[in-house]
Write a structure and sequence with these properties.
By secondary structure, the protein is an alpha/beta fold. It has 2 domains: 3-149 and 303-333, Medium-chain alcohol dehydrogenases, catalytic domain (Quinone Oxidoreductase, Chain A, domain 1, Alpha-Beta Complex); 152-281, NAD(P)-binding Rossmann-like Domain (Rossmann fold), CATH 3.40.50.720. The protein is built from 10 helices and 17 strands. It has helices at 41-47, 97-100, 150-160, 178-188, 202-208, 219-224, 242-247, 269-274, 287-300, 314-322, and strands at residues 3-7, 16-20, 29-39, 64-71, 83-86, 89-91, 111-112, 124-128, 133-134, 168-172, 191-196, 212-215, 229-234, 249-257, 278-281, 306-310, 329-333. It is globular.
Length: 337
């Protein structure tokens, strides 16, 4: 049976109806009937071939929520009818040291849902069973798609670096990723500060979970922040004054980026050495960490702040995202069937 989808046939082109035959279902694959799919800035980057790895026709979509409708003979963990989420990753080798230690997201052969294969702007999508996360009760399926990419991207470092409820933390970039980071860190029990670029964003950041804000363009406020934070999470895809944020860390503090910063990061060595400070980065999380994030979200009633478009209006949604108007994530509801 052919899968109906929306595809671009060249860089920066509009998406249009497209059908393809997926071939036989793999023995470890799950087929998902797509109910909704988030629209992420990474979809836009892939559509435009910003990273030089896009193949056309290109079907975006890697924040997928849907029902399991078919199973390969060697699948586990899910059954027909289960509602599952599928994110950026859709397969891993299962035999390397990283996979065997539960770090499948660091597998050197990890498969991305929209690189070299067709994604979730479609009636159906396939993935290895390992990466199909069952949605727990209490998670709003209509909003959950962005948790499978943006959500786990900011949740993963909280787990990896053992962030404690007693920690003072800060978030740079209050957008698609940052707004979820504020919600998670507030529920985690941390003292949360949002770095903003203007005082006008203060109330919005406070509503999202920050206890306070700091204007990153105000030299006096930044001077007062020196030595304040155990952990600073950068979610912005922008070049920053990195030494200023290193100065804002306590001794043994960590500056961590999940934002795809365009230029190499330049830092002075002595502030890092004398304060025993760290700079790090991370990708999305493992299937087990994604399960934990979904359970944490259900327990604390955490959901992305979303806007909704029908999937048939995907080009309108793409323009809304491209123009910077999205608040804060976009979810496409499937009307392609």
């Amino acid at each position: 049976m052919n899968i109906k989808a929306l595809a671009a046939f060249g860089a920066k082109q509009a998406l249009q109806p497209f059908e393809y035959n997926p071939g036989p279902l793999g023995s470890e694959q799950v087929e998902i009937a797509v109910e909704s799919c988030g629209l992420c800035h990474s979809d836009l980057s892939m559509l435009d071939n910003d990273w030089g790895m896009t193949t056309y026709p290109f079907v975006p979509g890697h924040e997928i929520i849907g029902r399991v409708v078919a199973l390969g003979e060697h699948t586990k963990r899910v059954k027909i009818g289960d509602r599952v989420g599928l994110g950026w990753f859709s397969g891993s080798c299962g035999e390397c040291a990283q996979c065997l230690s539960g770090n499948q997201n660091l597998c050197l052969k990890v498969e991305a849902t929209i690189i070299g294969r067709h994604g979730g702007f479609a009636t159906r999508v396939r993935a290895q069973w390992t990466w199909c996360n069952p949605l727990p009760e209490g998670v709003d399926a209509g909003k959950a798609g962005p948790l499978l990419c943006g959500g786990i991207t900011v949740f993963n470092p909280i787990v990896q670096f053992g962030i404690k409820p007693t920690d003072s933390v800060a978030v740079i970039g209050i957008g698609g990723l940052g707004h979820m980071a504020l919600k998670f860190l507030r529920a985690w029990g941390c003292d949360v500060t949002a770095f903003t670029t203007s005082d006008s964003k203060r109330e919005e950041a406070l509503r999202l979970g920050a206890h306070r804000t700091l204007n990153s363009r105000n030299a006096d406020e930044l001077a007062k922040a020196v030595g304040s934070f155990d952990f600073i999470l950068n979610t912005a895809n922008a070049d920053l004054d990195w030494n200023t944020y290193i100065a804002a860390l306590k001794p043994k503090g960590r500056l961590h980026t999940v934002g795809a910063v365009p230029s190499p990061i330049a830092l002075g060595a002595f502030p890092m050495i004398l304060g025993q400070k760290s700079l790090s980065g991370s990708p999305l999380g493992s299937p087990a960490t994604t399960d934990s994030m979904l359970q944490f979200s259900a327990r604390h009633g955490i959901a992305p702040t979303t806007e909704t478009f029908p999937m048939s209006r995907v080009n309108d949604a793409l323009e809304h995202l491209r123009s910077g108007k999205a608040r804060y994530r976009i979810v496409l509801t499937n009307d392609l069937a």
